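[agent] plan:
  1. take the single chain provided in the ticket
  2. run structure prediction with default settings
  3. attach structure tokens to the ticket
  4. add a short note for the reviewer (M.T.)
[agent] executing step 1
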Amino acid sequence: MTCVACMIWENRKVFMQHTTVKELPESERPYERFLALGAEALSDAELLSIILKTGTKELTALDIARQLLSECHGNLLNLYEFSYEELMEHKGIGPVKAIQLKAVAELSKRIARTDNSDKLELNKPETVAGYYMETLRHQKREVVMAAFFDAKCHFLGDSVIATGGSDSACVAVSALFQEALKRHAVQMIVLHNHPSGDPNPSTADIQLTERLAEGAKLLGLQLSDHIVIGDNRYYSFLENSIMPV
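[agent] step 2 finished; step 3 output follows
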């Protein structure tokens, strides 16, 4: 038994001497189920309750977790949309728990991206859009990013190029190209989100794409695609055959 398991067991062994798992208070069951069955057997609410640890006089940690999931429409990914301040509006969630939940949401997003980075394919916009979807679709302001690739289409990393208001972003073109050259990139894909959720490009988006493609050519680079991220939807200039040549 690990040290963590020993600590949990020591805190409960007196109570457990005369109590079966089924008779345990509901708020205690996630810990015992974790030890007996492993994390895979726990529900989303049970896993969240372990992070929360404690509840209030009226609500168990499991109750609070269920309320959060209800507001997330049952989708853990939507937990990322809650701001630190919004989390603290929930009964039983103070500054420490709000920080813990935001940290868990951010870690889960980064783990998912790390796991999928080797699946990015330069000529398959759906893989690129899927990789950045959770990063960009939750943003309240427009964020412009660029993904960089070498001559053999190997992913070299990405960078935030600009952030803007709720409906626009001023792209620092020089910053984009400087970042590409610094990474010894040959090709790049620009992405940005539409906070409205509608990924269809605006006239400004089309003009920006033309300007970036022209500037890239002058530096011996290639703008391979411009992808607009909406709410679980995307628009690819490459897929729609409107990339400047």
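[agent] step 4 note for reviewer: Residues 13-23 have pLDDT under 50 and may be disordered.
[agent] ticket updated
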